[in-house]
Amino acid sequence: MKIPLVYNVRSLIRRPVSSAMTALGVALVVGVFIAMLALANGFKMALVRTGSPDNVIVLRKGADSELSSGISRDNAEIIAALPQIATASDGTPLVSPEVFVPTNLASAGGGDAQLVVTRGVTTRAFEVRHGIRITEGRFFAPGRDEVIIGTAIAPKLAHSAVGDTIQMAGRGWLVAGHFSAGGSAFESEMWGENDQLMPVLRGQVYQVVAFRLKDPSQFEAAKQALENDPRLQVDAHRESDFYASQSLVLRQILNFLAFFITTIMAVGAVFGAINTMYAAVASRTSEIAVLLTLGFKPRSVLASFLAEATFLALVGGLVGCLVAIPINGVVTSTTNWSSFSMIAFSFLVTPRILVAGVLFAVVMGVLGGFFPARRASRVPVVQAIR
Amino acid sequence: MKFLPLVWANLTRHKRRSVLTTLSVALALFLFASLRSVVTTLRASAEVGSESRMIVQSAKAIVFFLPMSYRERLLAVPGVKAVTWADWFGGVYQDPKNFFASFAADAESYLDIYRSDFTLPADQRAAFVKERTACIVGQHLLDKYGWHLGQNVTLQGTIFQGDWTFTIRGVYHATNPSFSEDALMFHYEVIYEKYPNWVQPGWYVLELKDPSLAQQVAATIDSEFKNSSDPTKTGTERAFNAGFVTMWGNVSFLMDSIGMAVVFAILLVAANSMMLSARERTNEVGVLKTIGFGDRLLFGLVMAEAGGIALVGAALGLGAATVLYPAIHFSAMGFLPGFSVAPATLALGVGIAVALALASGLVPAVSAARLSAVQALRHVE
């Protein structure tokens, strides 16, 4: 027969300080765990959102990032003639050849220059790339020295307000507008027109060509056609997969950190739980003996104490979630080592991460409760009652 | 001192509890020292860069080449003793996850300028310089992939297309902790010959005759190239390294806040354990008071117990961190060369242990001191 859970809850409440401290310890571990995962997740999502599964991005063969790629104008034209490419309403292909250069831009409030991606595009890019929206001002005008700046990066740069002139590559550029891009890495970039940027940046070479597929299922066919074309030396990637892979280096570091830190913290918290539960068992020896005398099976006693520890940890886990949730949306920035430039992104707490945090707490509770619970189930009845 | 056996007896009464609490403290301080060392190592790498070497890069962005013709012009700048150049290669070894630095450099001049930062046996150096397709690697990188001298290593180019095979002719040891041992270097000519119309130096390194000339040299160079199609950005190696450190963003803040959370979490564990012990001993405190133990002495006994746990834990945790990282050559994939626990971190760790002892011992110690003997003896478990 099972011992009612109320018994455990009441027992915990009878030792409020000790219970609260143990639960709080677990809460801190879970809080840090969630925060670390939210950081890694936010970074990953910023890059994942950058790509779309119905787009293809073409890079030079072997290039592992937009930074290391290069595609000539001739090749870009060959790519644009691919039959799998979707067409716009005017019948022209939805292709966006782009220049990609990390440039030194002055930081807001002085300080060192920041490396920020400057992307050269054509107006077509706003149809090919997903979710680009002007939040203030307007798009850059073709044929003019104008740029638009992503909303995530604009506050961190000097002279980045709409109407200001920002210095880049030794020239002044009028900031025509700010744009958002659904939280993607594009929001950490500055965009201008290819024809204006190419002469001052990399010369007559694009870094990537992105295009929309008529039908997302034709990706393999398009990839085969491009990679087997003897005139081209390129790799074609599904855009969503490509940008997700760009977060790899930093994600590895963040995941390692999350694992390393939370494992060590968790061991400490489990030790704390073990102490608390052993003390609880020791001070309730006679109570346990009474339970056993009343006919509760040792198995039930074990389950009961295990449940008590788990419940305590669960409360801690839930508190940890509550403490960590406000971090959702907090913007931070770091360097994406794949593009070598600054990327601003926000912590992203998902239900999945919260569930992982709670499960983590439960595991800590079970680990911390098992041995004390086993001790409780083996209390020698006669001695204890005497 | 004569009460030490009593403190010891109290600690060993619940051996398991004392051991677990001590270990929690040890883990916390180990973690604290590790996190703090990320910050100090980053800071150190911003400061150890040489003041007598300068880096010249493109002012437009680091990915731009600088013309080869700059070499002569840089050499002619007053105060410049020697010039070398290099290019980031960014090769992939087997799998993109195997990340390490690979770069092409003008071998002899590069080795000369960096002579004080590493050691490379003279015969290996000669073999490397002489052979076009040779490379040198850091000892740590060699160990990591189980390579040996004379082995061929093939990298896939990311910037420079194709497979590139190099023969390991030398293994260097870093003597300056910020000089990465996770790197592979080969001859600039190799990439230049394949792409003669494209490849040029990615950055130049200058050796100054006198570090005090740095500002002046930088100003001369940058103004000389200011209106050319390839303007330059010149700074000391130290400033260059510091620039890399700021690229990590607010890592220090992240590390410090996690460190705080860790310390606080363990404080809870330690304080809880001290309070559990104190509660179980209420009767004893009464007995001790009856036989003449003073309030102050009882206070001291509880504090000594808390202090013992905190200090032993601190010694274990801080000691482990100090010994472990250099022993396994931890460098976070080359991002944190010379990762080690700084003396200041150890001092801070000891300070935290003392604070931990005070905080965890204070409540039980005060209540032990205040407790009246009568009340204590009446207390029923």
Features:
heterodimer, A: alpha+beta, ten-stranded mixed beta sheet, B: 381 residues, 2 domains, elongated
Assembly type: heterodimer
Instruction: Please outline the major beta sheet of chain A.
Output: 10 strands, mixed
Mean pLDDT of chain A: 90
Order of helices and strands of chain B: HHEHEEHEHEHEEEHEHEHHHHHH
By helix and strand content of chain B, what is the structural category? alpha+beta
Could you characterize the architecture of this molecule?
The complex is a heterodimer of chains A (386) and B (381). Chain A has 386 residues and is an alpha+beta fold. Chain A has two domains: 5-48 and 248-385, no CATH class; 62-232, no CATH class. Chain A has twelve helices and 14 strands. In chain A, the strands form three sheets. In chain A, strands 1, 3, 4, 5, 6, 7, 8, 9, 11 and 12 form a ten-stranded mixed sheet that branches. Chain A is elongated. Chain B has 381 residues and is α+β, with helices and mostly antiparallel strands. Chain B has two domains: 4-46 and 249-378, no CATH class; 53-209, no CATH class. Helix content of chain B is 55%, strand content 16%. Chain B is built from 14 helices and ten strands. Chain B has helices spanning 4-13, 15-47, 70-75, 107-113, 122-130, 139-145, 188-194, 214-225, 237-247, 251-280, 282-290, 295-328, 343-370, 373-378, and strands at 53-58, 80-88, 101-105, 118-119, 134-138, 152-156, 163-174, 183-187, 203-208, 232-236. In chain B, strands 1, 2, 3, 4, 5, 6, 7, 8, 9 and 10 form a ten-stranded mixed sheet that branches. Chain B is elongated, with a radius of gyration of 30 Å. The model of chain B has no long low-confidence stretch (mean pLDDT 87).
